[in-house]
Amino acid sequence: MKDSRFPELIYNQIKKLEQFGTKETCKEECTLFASGDKQYDFFVILEGKVRIYDAYNDEDIVVHKKYEFTGDSGMLSHRAAQFDTIAVKGTKILRIKSDQLKEAIRKNSDLSDVLLDAFLLRQETVLNEISGGLKLVGSGNSTETYSIRDFLEKNHIWYNFIDIDTKEEAKDLLEYFNLSESDLPFLINRNSKICKNPSIEQLATYSGVLMDFEDKIFDVLVIGAGPSGLAASVYAASEGLSVVTIDSEAPGGQAGKSSKIENYLGFPTGISGSELANRAYIQAQKFGCNISIPHRAQSLEYNKNHFTVCATNGKLIKSKALLIATGAAYRKLPIDNVQDFEGCGIYYSATGMDVSNCANQDVVIVGGGNSAGQAAMFLSKTAKKVHVIIRGDDLGAKMSDYLVQRINASEVIDVHINTEVTNLFGDHHLEKITLTTNKTEKSELETSNLFSFIGAAPNTVWLNDIVVTDKKGFICTGELLIKEKLTDCDIYKKREPQSLEASIPGIFAVGDVRKGSVKRVASAVGEGSMAVSQIHTFLSEF
After folding, report:
1. C-alpha span between 530 and 232 (Å, rounded)
2. Distances (CA, A) of 450 to 254, 347, 401, 406, 503
3. How far from 291 is each of 74, 249, 282, 443, 472, CA to CA, in Å?
4. 174 Cβ contact list (under 8 Å, min separation 6)
5. What is residue 344's predicted lDDT score, i.e. its pLDDT?
6. Which of 151, 369, 441, 445 has the fewest CB within 10 Å, making it most exposed?
């Protein structure tokens, strides 16, 4: 049976692709693109062979033959190539530039299905089955190292972590590059170049997830790539609007931190928040949306004609309409030394790398919402014991019933009601916590892994009160707006604000950042898609 990662294109599909590219013959063996290249071309093999070579493992991943094609999902963005692609002597190829490939995919659904299915499967194989990519050397107990790993994991960047605490290879690399432990963490690229203590921005630039934009006024700027922001990105781009989407961390928002979502329509066996976000991320770029991570909005200016957002690294992004989907961040435990253990014992999401770290250990989950429940079930697969800590006396007050039933049925999970974490102890890493039950009863629990999913504070400080919010900072839209606080403008003299429109015409708020929103993935996606219709209405008023 033909491997679905490497399908053969049929005659009609190749004829369609020929309209978007040029035919070439490689008279000698040549490298079509190398690992680390950005915006590399797409190739269909018409005759001959093309090798996909993995320099890290010194082997061919696959040899593409007649009517097969190169590439993966990184081709739809500015992400760097992961392997060398080498055409053997005499090979005939069809070369298509990345922008032309996107156009071909948008115009031909049969090509879109074949190419995107193969791209996604290839990405999954690379991330889960092949050792290699960027080498990250650091300590598993280091906050700085955890931050880098967290960014790489959530953005689906291929890498290999070498732990100085457990692997001799890490110590050998320190010696080979004449480095000391004070230089940790450091990255090694395919050319053996070293980057000591890399910033997230440096890492994002190298891997290609941080991109630049044209100096023009876009139709829509989406701030936040959670479910609502990604939905808006997909719908706006698919309807021909010019769209830029930025996010400070990774696609998915709080939903991206969910290990398994089972109540989202259309996925009866469930889907991880990370996978759902990654598919939406690729889908938006398929339609031409520009997505850049990490870009954090820092300030907003409004000059009656367009909005200007100043993002991190001083980048100014201009747009006619602005969609705010910045969501809400989990609150920190109200304990003085909580920051000492963030990334080295206290975490705000449960990912694949956390499962191995928690094997045969006691794990603590603080919070009673769905994210906490999903994390508890996810980590219970390997943990010795999972302790769920809630302040109230009813686990079902904020958690879906199917999760409550599973937690109650689990022999690995214990639920502590009317309980709070009141103290944290540890030298360089979390070692022990104090639990206080019913305000007075204290007990101690040894743990090095505490996952916090409590409360929600809206990410709206950067707006500097330019739009109307409630006392907690959630953005008021539509009927919730107080009319006398509406901006004095011609548009609102003619009509009421639309349901997702803020106090300034052209600013829309969706998802968790909006006052009155339902904190569920499905409703966030619905709001994101609905906002695009309202954006069209606003743009028609220009």
Report:
1. 8
2. 17, 6, 24, 21, 40
3. 12, 12, 10, 47, 29
4. 137, 164, 180, 181, 183
5. 92
6. 441
Question: Cα–Cα–Cα angle for 487, 493, 494, nearest 5°?
Answer: 135
**Token pair in block for residue 517:** 């929103």
Q: CA–CA separation, 371 vs 349, rounded Å? A: 9
Look up residue 328 and give its two tokens: 């809400």
- For residue 40, the one-letter residue type is Y
For residue 4, count other CB atoms closer than 10 A to its CB.
10
Task: Determine how β-strand 297-302 pairs with β-strand 430-437.
Answer: unpaired
Residues constituting the chain: 542
DSSP labels, 470-521: -TTSPBP-GGGS-GGGS---HHHHHSPPPTTB-SSTTEEE-GGGBTT---SH
Count of beta carbons in the 10 Å neighbourhood of residue 232: 34
Place of tokens 């022990």: 432
Looking at this protein, which amino acid is placed at residue 501?
Answer: E
Kindly report the number of other CB atoms within 10 A of residue 347's CB atom. Answer: 22
The Cα–Cα gap between 254 and 327 comes to 8
* 125 in Cβ contact with 9 (< 8 Å): no
pLDDT computed for residue 212 by the predictor:
80
C-alpha to C-alpha distance for 101 and 17, rounded to whole angstroms:
8
- Kindly list the distances between the CA atom of residue 11 and the CA atoms of 5, 25, 134, 177, 474, in Å, as whole numbers in the listed order: 19, 19, 38, 52, 54
- Taking the C-alpha atoms of residue 292 and residue 383, their distance in angstroms, rounded to an integer, is 36
Model pLDDT for residues 53-95, shown as the tens digit of each residue = 998 889 999 999 999 999 998 888 888 899 999 999 999 999 9
- The segments of the chain whose pLDDT lies below 70 read none
C-alpha closest to that of 204 among 161, 236, 244, 251: 251
Rounded Cα distance between 49 and 89, Å, is 9
